[in-house]
């Protein structure tokens, strides 16, 4: 397991969400302090709390944005580079798992009491989410982040 994966899992084990775990593991590499990274990514876990795009993927997109995002209105090259890199990352994750949606990856609706119960009963934080986090980190590392 890489150092970044270990860091991400440490954040996740400390009760941060999947997006926070991925983004915070890389944030300081891009001059973003950990506290800010954790706050910014706070609303993105569990598919933005509605089962949509997996938080590990959104955390990865935040890393890509921190590294390659457009910060100058005239820098269309950076914009396009960020778009292409984010799409490649998401496509690679989808190729591995067949989808990008939290509710599909987990097979439960975290907005429903029975979904939350199954998530807890089957320890999906450990058995599923940690794997998605590790995969997102690995894809980022393989792309040079």
Topology, pairings included?
Layout: H1 3-13, H2 18-27, H3 34-41, H4 45-51, H5 55-68, H6 76-97, H7 102-106, H8 113-121, H9 124-142
Helix pairs in contact: 1-2, 1-9, 2-3, 2-5, 2-9, 5-6, 5-9
Question: What this model shows, in words?
Answer:
This protein has nine helices and no strands. It is globular. Helix 2 runs parallel beside helix 5. The mean pLDDT is 97. It has one domain. The protein is an all-alpha fold.
What structural keywords apply?
145 residues, globular, mainly alpha, single chain, 0% strand, 72% helix, 9 helices
Number of strands: 0
Instruction: Estimate what percentage of residues fall within beta strands.
Output: under 5%
- Order of helix and strand elements from N to C terminus: HHHHHHHHH
Averaging pLDDT over every residue, what do you get?
A: 97
**Unreliably modeled segments:** none
Q: How many alpha or pi helices?
A: 9
Tally of domains: 1
Shape: globular
The helix content is over 70%
Helix/strand-derived class?
mainly alpha
Which sheet architecture does the biggest sheet show? none
- Rounded to the nearest angstrom, the radius of gyration is 15 Å
Distance between the termini: 16 Å
Briefly say what this structure is.
The chain is mostly helical.
